[in-house]
Amino acid sequence: LKVNTTLKTLNLYGNKIGYEGAKALANALKVNKTLTHFYIGCNNIGDIGADNIADMLKVNRTLNLLDIHSNKIGDKGMEKIAEGIKGNLHIFTIKISGNRISENIQDQIIIIQNNKNKLSLSGLSIITLLSKTSFDENDLNEKDVPDTVETLIKKHLNSLENGDPVKPKFTTIYNNLHSIGYK
């Protein structure tokens, strides 16, 4: 990963990487110049692993999607992640569902992403911030998701204009886009 010049997406979902593996990956991604999508969900990285990922986010300028869902990350680790994404204008999608975080920390990340998007013209931030349920994990089905993708995008854009983050009740823009095959 340190010298890679072709790999754009790395999916390490469910590999029992732990915090030591997260540290090694984060160190490699500090210097990587090509990876744009990093999926490290369900790897039990915890707060220590989150600290390493957060340090990487402070210097990495190529990632635009980070999936760290279901990693036993608590408020301390997610606060570090929030600090890491605060100065990183390249991260547009972050998935943190299924971690042990409070609603306050979730709200902090929504506000950071929304504020970054007000300053950025390069894209729409798509944020998945469900704490206990996830459309991707089949806890919900389509009948549980009343909003269409178009409605959710309009709500999200209106929230950016008004400065108020929108948190749809059952799913988020990312999950809806993902469910119809948008990558």
Give a structural overview.
With 183 residues, this protein is of the alpha/beta class. The protein is built from 6 helices and 5 strands. A 5-stranded parallel beta sheet has the order 1-2-3-4-5. Strand 3 (65-67), helix 3 (75-86) and strand 4 (93-95) form a beta-alpha-beta unit. Helix 3 runs parallel beside helix 4 (103-119). The model is unreliable at 119-146, 166-172 and 176-183 (pLDDT under 50).
Would you summarize the structure shown here?
This protein has 183 residues and is α/β, with parallel strands linked by helices.
Q: What is the helix/strand order?
A: EHEHEHEHEHH
Helical content stands at 40-55%
Q: Biggest sheet, in brief?
A: 5 strands, parallel
Strand line-up across the major sheet: 1-2-3-4-5
Q: Count the helices. How many?
A: 6
Q: How far apart are the first and last residues' alpha carbons, in Å?
A: 22 Å
Q: Decide which structural class fits the backbone.
A: alpha/beta
Q: Any idea what the shape is? A: globular
Structural Rg: 15 Å
List the helices and strands and how they pair.
Elements: E1 9-11, H1 18-29, E2 37-39, H2 46-57, E3 65-67, H3 75-86, E4 93-95, H4 103-119, E5 126-128, H5 149-162, H6 173-179
Keywords summarizing the entry:
6 helices; globular; alpha/beta; 5 strands; 183 residues; five-stranded parallel beta sheet
